[in-house]
Give the backbone structure.
Amino acid sequence: MGFTSSYILNLPAVMLGYQPVRPLLFSYYITHRCNLNCRYCCDGDGKRFKEDPIPELSTAEAKRLVSILRGAADTLDITGGEPMLRNDLEDILAHARQSGFRTVLNTKGIGIEDRPDILSHTSVLVLSLDTIDPGALANVIDRPQATADRIISGLEFAIKKHKETGTKVILSTVATPANLDHVAGVLHYALDHSLGFHVSPEIVGKTANPELRNNERYQRLIDEVLAAKEKHCGVLGVPGYLRGIRDFGRFHCHPLLMPTIRPDGRLYYPCLENKRVGVNLLEVENYPAALGKARREFGEIPACQDCCHLFCHMALSLLQREPLAALGELRHWGI
């Protein structure tokens, strides 16, 4: 099943007021380990991911998980933690590509210059970057400036090599009360280098940082992003998403558009933020069987509405609900 076919098959459910259950992509948290201490990191439960250590699948198990997921979607997002802490990341990415997945890798990119095969096996590289100023970045990640410099050098390497490998590069920024003056710099850096860009508000627990609500500086920033989107295809998120994170309006969340898998292969149901852990995907034949078991155990999806104003939830949900906007959005990324 592919992204486009799943999108189309989900439309009747959305129009009839039901939850769409065909995944557009999977998000695999390949590890919770991380060598940084980003101030905004939150697992939906008030902790940083690295504060919730979970056993990881072996290389062989991870490949088998990937093969199981491929039966239900053609896009795989690999995230963490910091995925590059796994020495077998290249092997897993290569297997995913060979299985027919479009691969998306979320990382800070430290040391990617020394592991060039990662780019070769990655369709879309999402680099987490909250400022292009190394001194300010060091404060965000709570590490020495030398570490921040390595993030910037990894970005420069990816820009240099991405046309050679065919990898699309996206800069992912978290807007916090502390970095509002820096986010626009990341936006313009992305546009100047023909990169993608997306922004999410800082989430504390499951809701946006209260200091961003009714914050005129934050609202002006998102208005600037909206204006840039009107001129540049590289700004991701349908306009409804950008207006939504500016005003923190309610939206219908469809978490099963992007099912989330823990490092141990267990499925979060319906999403990571709800912390309900269903069946281990390695113990079933396919994803529909895992979903069916989770639904029987936990019931239907709660109507959260006014929370999780994150790109991965809100933007994807509104993409599914706004077909006309989606046509333009997906065309830019070859889906």
